[in-house]
């Protein structure tokens, strides 16, 4: 990003303002403290990039270094001042955000959406600028259709982006949220969630003639559905005279162990 002719200047922190187009609003406190400690001992090793404004400077790249320098009690910071347009500043800020190591899938999708909205770009144009395929960008943007509660789980690291895309198949928001909570509680893999969602949606599409036998009381049918949703497997309740049994289906040792663990956790 820096050209060989760029001149490094020592700029007063008081004259610098955050980039108004910076998509990242939260900076992890512990990591910021670590960087501040490093700056106290070694200084800022890589200059930040600034853009000259009427009232001083806007940060283009390097807001973490700027904030950490403030924490370290520094008065100046090494910087390269570049002449660039608002659009260029906006794009560089978003691209820098996309290069973060701790970026999660939803934040990545939000960055693509911001590039499209702020710079009036198409999915194809964003893909070309970032060296991605258009289907990849489209697939990531789908995550922004999730309910806020579920995007929150992804941002918190409780679910992956692949979990989120699988949940979108459910369409119905309450079912989506309920399934997401169950997947987190029972630590479902993406593959298991895909299987569960597939079974759930295929059941909804069955013609009425394949519905549970009308001979079963509605209470039992309802409990079968409830247990299936709760434990993520097929459940059958049968009764005969004064006796009955509940059957939980499993097709692998992994599913068997998951069920046992779920039963034990409730005992």
UniProtKB/TrEMBL annotation:
It comes from the Bacteria. Residues 1-22, 201-227 are annotated as: Disordered. Residues 113-142 form the HTH cro/C1-type domain. SUPFAM superfamilies: KorB DNA-binding domain-like, ParB/Sulfiredoxin. PROSITE patterns: HTH_CROC1 (PS50943). InterPro entries: Chromosome_partition/occlusion, Cro/C1-type_HTH, HTH_ParB/Spo0J, ParB/RepB/Spo0J, ParB/Sulfiredoxin_sf, ParB_dimer_C, ParB_N. Keywords: Chromosome partition, DNA-binding. Belongs to the ParB family. NCBIfam families: parB_part. Pfam families: HTH_ParB, ParB_C, ParB_N. This is ParB/RepB/Spo0J family partition protein. It comes from Staphylococcus debuckii.
